[in-house]
Amino acid sequence: VHLVESEGGSVQAGGSLTLSCAASGFTYSNYYMGWFRQAPGKEREGVARIGRDGSTDYADSVKGRFTISRDNTKSILYLLMNSLKPEDTAIYSCAAGAVPFCAGYRTACFNYWGQGAQVTVSS
């Protein structure tokens, strides 16, 4: 099983960045997917989640600015990040889960994790 994020990047506040996550080694369409981030000195937090049916959920801090999407034909997950703020600076990781009746962003809900990509937003 592999989840490989694209390289992150550095942008100025107000800019945009798209992350992708290529999945392999499991039946991608059977899994819900999520993006998480961890800033220095802070706990990991869930950013966005997309269900097998394409339904989406976002953390309040990114709602209206970030968009999660998935391409089941290519087994790729995306995170489009607009209007970036310095507080969005973090390591972003994708994750895949197939735990029945498991909602939200609890770590236990996700079976596989990517290695993470650094996103830096400067003011």
How are the SSEs ordered, and which strands pair?
Blueprint: E1 2-5, E2 9-12, E3 17-24, E4 32-38, E5 45-50, E6 56-58, E7 66-71, E8 76-81, E9 90-97, E10 112-113, E11 117-122
Parallel strand pairs: 2-11
Antiparallel strand pairs: 1-3, 3-8, 4-5, 4-9, 5-6, 7-8, 9-10, 9-11
The number of helical elements comes to: 0
What's the total number of strands?
11
Amino- and carboxy-terminal Cα gap = 37 Å
Helix content: under 10%
Mean pLDDT: 97
Largest sheet: 7 strands, mixed
The value of Rg in angstroms is 13 Å
- How would the global form be characterised? globular
Point out poorly predicted stretches: none
What share of the residues does DSSP label as strand, in percent? over 45%
Instruction: Give the H and E element order.
Output: EEEEEEEEEEE
Query: Which class best fits the helix and strand makeup?
Result: mainly beta
Task: Give a description of the structure.
- The protein is an all-beta fold and 123 residues long.
- Helix content is 0%, strand content 49%.
- The chain has no helices and 11 strands.
- β5 (45-50) and β6 form a beta hairpin.
- The protein starts with a strand and ends with a strand.
Keywords:
123 residues, mainly beta, 4-stranded antiparallel beta sheet, 0% helix, globular
